[in-house]
Amino acid sequence: MPALFRAAEALLVAALLTVATACGSRLPEGAFETSRAPGESAREPVRVGVITSATSPVGGAAFDGPGQGARAYFDALNARGGLDGRRVEVITCDDGGSGAGNNECVHRLVEEEKVFALVATTVLDYAAAPRVSRAGVPDIGGQPIGPAYDTYPHLYGIYGSQAPRTGDEPGWDGVLYGGTEVYRWFKHAEGARTAAVVSYNQASSAAYARLVTRGLEAEGYRVVSEQLDFALPNFRAVAADIGRSGADLVFDALDAHGNAQLCEAMDEVGTRVTAKVTNVQNWNSAVPRDYKDAPGCRNALWVTGSSRNYEDTGHPAVREFRQAVRGKELSQWQLEGWAAAMWFTDAAKSCAGDLTRACVERYLNRPEPYTARGLLLPVSYRPLEEPPSSRRACLSVARWQDGRGWVTQGGEMNRNCYDVPQIPYRPR
Length: 428
What we know:
Strand order of the largest sheet: 8-7-9-10-11-13-14
Order of helices and strands: HEHEHEHEEEHEHEHEHEHHEHHHEEEE
CATH superfamily of the largest domain: Response regulator
Number of helices: 13
């Protein structure tokens, strides 16, 4: 299972920023009844689909990073001769961030284009997830912006899952679990003891803030709760309160724009903290632009995740990724999309020329965890009947420094590990 509430973080973003939802057009159930992939002749390309919410209400490139990384990987693979001599043909679809658009993308890619698999799915509303599952189409390395990857068989999110995934409810009877390793790390590595948690007076934001508070309290932190009016937020007053509280850390349940405004306010009132902790969605090279008016807070930005820092160019797999995406703004989500495409490719190669969906899924469900040549913390899909009460969990940590970018903290991520409790939460 990923770090505490990582899926809940993404659910928060979706809840805060979705301006409208809609029900998708229903397709006949029989349209998805197929057990083998079409077009398995060696003379034909292997077709994969990439669905993103590139034009979602969240904004331009918010969800496009994983798809960019996956396409870069397949371009490099094709330049080397493809997959066992077969070119990988990538077919993309922008669902616009709506359930209706997601249904349309799945209909086009699965029914009309007859893709073999989906790779690096990154969507605001995965309304068609049950249809992908019923079709038996492997969805490999998607971002868990919602509970789909902890609910349905044939769906494999980039962070793995130990949930039963029966298709009925997420996790164990609608409950997911996550560890407190992020909070443990800051306590041990930075001596943090007090944390401020900032949210809006909005249901999803407040609910996520309560989850963060529970995790922090389980690790013995003193927690200072701050709430902003969603319609007329007074960031300056909250920033001043954080300063008076003596908080070492700031966690938030805000959107990206709110994060930047909070940072600006903290600089304006002179509030300094050890770490303003953000998430993997903000782990990118656009920090100087996004936080241009908050140099102090900007250099206190820290991020945690489950993949190797894209700035770690001493690692050969990172260098290969950087070479392929050279000239573009970089993000951790791009690297994870690259890793998702690698995961699909390694699974397909395991079939030794007899490519079937069943063979690919045997690789995905194998006992050995997958690491994408060291780009990911070990990922597995081995279901447990009962959720664990504790678990050894590792994490990747980086800090922003002007002139250097994201600088890895804590050493090798595979040894940056703790035995931590697993905290239950309901994703919906």
